[in-house]
Amino acid sequence: MPGPDPALSSPRVPAPAWLRPALMLVGGALAALLFVQVDQQLAAFAIGVFSLFMAYWTSPLRSGPHTPLASAQERAREADGRAPTIVLWAPGNPASARLQAAIRAPREDLIWVNVFKDPAAQQLLGRYGGERMLPLALQGEDAARIDNVSELFAFQDRARPDGAPGGAAGAGPTTPDPGADPSGRPEQRGEDEPGSPRA
Is the pTM for the entire model greater than 0.70? Predict the structure, then answer.
């Protein structure tokens, strides 16, 4: 009987993910040392604390919203009505950080999956092009790299078969056509049609 797939046994954090936090630590240490040499201990301490915080914030050690991919997919399949959008993200990824900073409150229509904590999510991300595609939004069979909240809501509008908007409830599509007639009829210009009532 074959054992479990070793590729799915434990998550793998790629080495480049540690580069940014390492640079933060080294740069902060050098700046703190410089301030110590000019007898500015308070500034050196502040810089040291800030560099430690930024190294943690940009490293794979940072915790964040995470649901295992298998659970997220099951929840999307069993959803009544609009299925939630699964967003693959990674700590230290600038685009992921921007998107999470813009969406701070939990949303029922979004499920966050940290690819550094889920080997299955890493494998799925690899099929779409790897980490350069982060954050990656998944809605049914559709997938797209998302740079900001507007793109996320527009993706939800396109991907959901019922046409339900991804933004606030009842807000309508996020990218409406400013010249469109709400009735769906082409805009009439010039004189009124014959026989049409006038105000």
Answer: no
